Each structure stands twice: as structure tokens, then as C-alpha cells.
Model the fold of this input.
Amino acid sequence: MDAGPGRADGGKDGGADAQSSALPDAGAPDELLPPSSSEEMTARARHLLEALAHDSPELATDMVFPRDAYLLTRDSTDPGKAWDAKVTSAFQRSVHVMHKRTHGVEKAQFVSFELGKSVQQATPKKREWKKPLWRVKHSRLTFTIDGRTQRIEIAEMTGWHGAWYVTKLR
Done:
């Protein structure tokens, strides 16, 4: 899955220059806690519900932790391969499973997105993150199907350049 032009970070190439927050279009520094809600976050959460409704993960690529960010921050011998397996492939499988398990999701209407309550800064560890990043578990996407409220819990989100992204959907 390519986190293409629809990404919240404007689809900028995250090469070596993305490490420096001094660049005008590099986004917020990684150390800053991203806001728990914003219009941009709500729009991306709507994309996630649309992806679930249509069983089409590519509709929510802007909600997935960007590959370029993962390459810069993950301590791995091959972070690109790890991103493909742990983030994008897992996200695609999760969208497919959630689509099948949520009866009537094709008629879902977005209600809200709520960031989880326990935001923590991940400590850099070998074979995990190379730098401290913000993580949160148990965020919720709320929607209705035929007037009945339903929720999907997002397993883990990670902050990057002032926005939250899914690293583990389920």
C-alpha cells in the first residue's frame, strides 16, 4: 500500500530531509504531541470508514502510518520490508476482515472518531523505534448502520509530524 498523494502530510517524499523539522513543509516536530482531534483527523477517519464499507483499503491510505516515516524511525535491518508486512499488509487484511464481520457496513454513516485515552511516548528500543514517538491504543471509530450505533476499536495509532496514523488496525 502506497501512502500516496491523499496523505495528510501532502504526499511529500520522506527522504533524509524529512528528519529535519526546519524545512518549511516538513510538518510539526515529532516530539510534539499531535492534537487529539482536528478537521483533518475527522476527514481521514471518514476515509477509514469508507474503506471498511467498500472493502477497499486504498481509500484510507492517508490514515496509515506513512512508509517514509516508518523508514526513518524504525530500528530494523530492512524497515521497508517490515512496513510492508507489519503495517500495510496487516492494515489491508484488517480492513477485509472488518468488512466481512460488520454486517451492513456498506450502509454505515460516520458519527465520530475518538482518540484513545492513554497517550504515551514510546521509548526507543532495539528492533522497535529509533526515536521517541507518541502512541495511543484503543481509539474508536463510531458509526451507525440503520440507526444502530456501532464502534470499531483501532489497536494502535502513532503520532508523526503533528498527526495520528494507524500502525495496527486490529
Observations:
- The chain has one domain: 30-168.
- DSSP finds three helices and five strands in the chain.
- The helical segments are 39-54, 67-73, 79-101.
